[in-house]
Amino acid sequence: MNTIGENIKRFRIQAKFTQEELATRLGKSKNVISNWERGDNKPDADTIEEICLIFNISPNQIYSWEDAAEKPLTIAAHFEGDKFTEDELEEIKQFAEFVKNRRK
Asked: Of 28, 30, 57, 65, which sits 20 to 30 A from 17 (CA to CA)?
């Protein structure tokens, strides 16, 4: 299981952000990002939410929480004939998961 810092680093690299770029988006210093990634400190809950929005991920992904008992998610929506790629549909599912997890 990865730590929060390891996950932040992994998602940052996947998004092709430098520590400085992520810091700027979050209104933090590069040193703060570095401290998180090394595990010296952890972001607060509000910052975790911002990070999830930036990387388009759920808090479960940042915390490495997995629920094997989770049932498949079914979403029905009408988009007036719009077509979505598989990647876009996955992004919609991730956002729905993020919204659901904010209640917890």
From this structure: 65
CATH number at residue 92: 1.10.260.40
pTM of the complete model beyond 0.70 = no
- Amino acid letter for position 94: Q
With 0-12 / 13-18 / 19 or more C-beta atoms within 10 angstroms meaning exposed / middle / buried, residue 92 is middle
pLDDT tens per residue across span 38-78? 999 999 999 999 999 999 999 989 998 865 445 555 666 66
Q: How many domains does the chain have?
A: 1
Range of the domain at 63: 1-104
102's CB contacts (< 8 A; 6+ apart) are: 49, 59
